[in-house]
DNA sequence: CTGTATCCGAATTGATACTG
DNA sequence: CAGTATCAATTCGGATACAG
C-alpha cells in the first residue's frame, strides 16, 4: 500500500509512509469541516468558526486549529485588543488541500442518494 | 458550514448534514487505506487486502470492509469452496471515491516537505 | 481461509468549570 | 473573547480464543 498507481513517480516506502501518516492527520472529520468553513468564508475568528461548524465543542475546535496550524494549513493572528480577537486564515497549503477535498465533496453530494439506498438495502438484508 | 461555495447548487441544510455525515464515515484512516489497496490491485480476497494494508488487525479489516459494503463502496462475493474464498471489489461508487481522494494524495505527495517544515517550525516555536 | 465473540487497556471526545 | 484544565463517558483497537 502507499499510493494510487497513477500517482507514483517514485516508490520510496518511507515517503509512502509519510504520505499516509500526513493524510491520517489531515483527513479527520473536524479538520475537514473547519477547512471547509475557512474556505467558504475566508479569514475568521475563533467563535465564528465554531458557529460555522455546528456540533464541534470548544475543546475540539481549539485542538483542531492547533493541529492545522502545526501542519501549516492555517495561520493564527492575535490582535492585541480587549476583548482579544484571534483570526484564522487558510495558508496556500490549506487552500490547496481544500481544493483537493472538493473532489470528495462533489462525490458525496453527487452520490448521497446512492449511498443512502445502499445503506438501506444492506440494513434490510441483515 | 456544509459545502464549498463553488460546490453548492442547493443549500438544504439537511443535505449538508448528510454529506458531512457521509464524509465522516468514509474519511477514516482504514477505509482510505483499504480503498487504496483495492484501487491499486483490483478485486482481492480478504487476506490479500490484509497484507496490502500493513498494520491493520483482522478485526479492523472485517469491520472496515463491512462498513464499506454498507456504504456501497465494495461488493463482497463468497465462493462456495473449501477453504472459503471471499473476494472484495470496488463498486463504481467506490472507484469514484478513490479517484476523488487521488487529489488529496497528490496534494500530500506534492507538499510533504512543506508540511514537515511547517511542523518542525511550529514545534521549535513551542 | 474468513470470519465472530469477548476482554481490556488506550486514546478520543464532550461537558463543565475556570482564567487572562 | 479565546482559550486551558479536568473529569467522565464513550469509542477504538489489539490480542486472544473459537467456529463454519
Automatic annotation (TrEMBL), chains A, B:
<dbReference type="Pfam" id="PF01638">
    <property type="entry name" value="HxlR"/>
</dbReference>
<keyword id="KW-0805">Transcription regulation</keyword>
<keyword id="KW-0238">DNA-binding</keyword>
<dbReference type="GO" id="GO:0003677">
    <property type="term" value="F:DNA binding"/>
</dbReference>
<protein>
    <submittedName>
        <fullName>Transcriptional regulator</fullName>
    </submittedName>
</protein>
<keyword id="KW-0804">Transcription</keyword>
<dbReference type="InterPro" id="IPR036390">
    <property type="entry name" value="WH_DNA-bd_sf"/>
</dbReference>
<feature type="domain" description="HTH hxlR-type">
    <location>
        <begin position="12"/>
        <end position="116"/>
    </location>
</feature>
<dbReference type="InterPro" id="IPR002577">
    <property type="entry name" value="HTH_HxlR"/>
</dbReference>
<dbReference type="InterPro" id="IPR036388">
    <property type="entry name" value="WH-like_DNA-bd_sf"/>
</dbReference>
